[in-house]
Amino acid sequence: MTRVLITGGAGYVGSVSASAFIEAGHDVVVLDDLTTGHRAAVPAGAVLHQGTYVDGDALARLLETEQIEAILHCAARSLVGESIREPARYFGENVAGGVALLDAARAAGVERVVFSSTAAVYGVPESTPIPEEAPLRPINPYGETKRAFESALAWYGRAYGMRSVSLRYFNVAGATEALGEDHQPETHLIPNVLRAADGGPELTVFGDDYPTPDGTCIRDYIHVSDLAQAHLLALAATAPDDSRTGEPLVCNLGNGGGFSVREVLSAAEAVTGRTVPFTVGGRRAGDPPVLVARSSRAAQILGWQPAQPSLEEMVGSAWDWRRAHPGGYGE
Ligand code: UDP
Question: Which candidate, 124, 1, 102, places its Cα nearest to that of 53?
Fold first, then answer.
């Protein structure tokens, strides 16, 4: 049992992880400023502190009073388009705030960090599936700030003994019975497809002239519950005498296979039994044609295997959550 602080624990990935950590017997403290997170998403059994990790002094006090042993750092600004318009916010929170978090951890003697990183650190890959050793060439401030924090973590590890795992998520999808995706505005494909199936605005498919078999972009989707399990395994790997984090560990998290936008649409029609109205629009800036992870490192080093790799399970669970929570978290 470990006392874990989950930053962003009221968000989509953070809340599902908080719930999995509690189920696994850990003590969970959530730090979330609730700007994009939802109070109702914080699972019973977790202590919620409303605040920001960017305030290093307050965070150091919180780590000490709550006797935190490890940090799962999920909180961040995470919208690509917004990051291009407002890089100051992204560098300020994700990088400067991230360094404040690391310094607070040092001050409080917390030496274990699991970090929510992203496939956006790779930019437009030369080839797929993308291995972790691929060059990091982010094409937007979001990816750049995640790369910068990964890099700070690595150097803090070498200099100060911080043990870390950075998990580069590909496309997170799906829901648990209680917890799902409720973003304002919603930019992600699967929630937008389901909203269209449910009588909402029709979907715009961002381009069907890509060099892929059906012309639409291919992404590597991973179930949010599988992601939470990877976080648990990563936490274990940061234990003080665990050789896997003697050097900072970086792992991709994906299924190692991809689905096109059209395949997601078809899966949604099959799952919902409804037609998904859509139009084909222009390409969205910054979308590479294919993003698929090589995911063998997470399997070999962390022992992680996705339990729900099918599109039907991901889209189906997201649909079930949507039906059970028509107004999202209603906040
Ligand atoms: N996409 C789309 N319509 C939408 C949202 C997304 O066609 O309303 C496409 C997008 O261009 C990308 C894929 O769906 O090729 C996945 O996009 P998402 O925003 O879910 O994740 P990303 O790959 O950007 O992290």
Answer: 102
Ligand 1 pocket (Cβ < 6 Å) reads: 171, 187-189, 192, 203-206, 217, 219, 261, 284, 287
156 catalytic? Reply is no
How many CA atoms does the CB half-sphere of 283 hold within 13 Å? 12
- Cα(213)–Cα(157) distance, rounded to whole angstroms? 43
Residue closest via CA to ligand 1's atom 16 equals 189
Q: Which is the closest atom of ligand 1 to the Cα of 119?
A: 25
Q: Is 330 within a domain?
A: no
Residue 200, domain extent: 174-219+255-291+306-324
Based on the domain organization, do 36 and 168 belong to the same domain?
yes
Residue 261 Cα to ligand 1 midpoint, Å, equals 8
Show the CA angle centred on residue 95, arms to residues 93 and 96, nearest 5°: 70
pLDDT per residue rounded down to tens, the chain (331 residues): 999 999 999 999 999 999 999 999 999 999 999 999 999 999 999 999 999 999 999 999 999 999 999 999 999 999 988 999 999 999 999 999 999 999 999 999 999 999 999 999 999 999 999 999 999 999 999 999 999 999 999 999 999 999 999 999 999 999 999 999 998 889 999 999 999 999 999 999 999 999 999 999 999 999 999 999 999 999 999 999 999 999 999 999 999 899 999 999 999 999 999 999 999 999 998 788 999 999 999 999 999 999 999 999 999 999 999 999 998 998 7
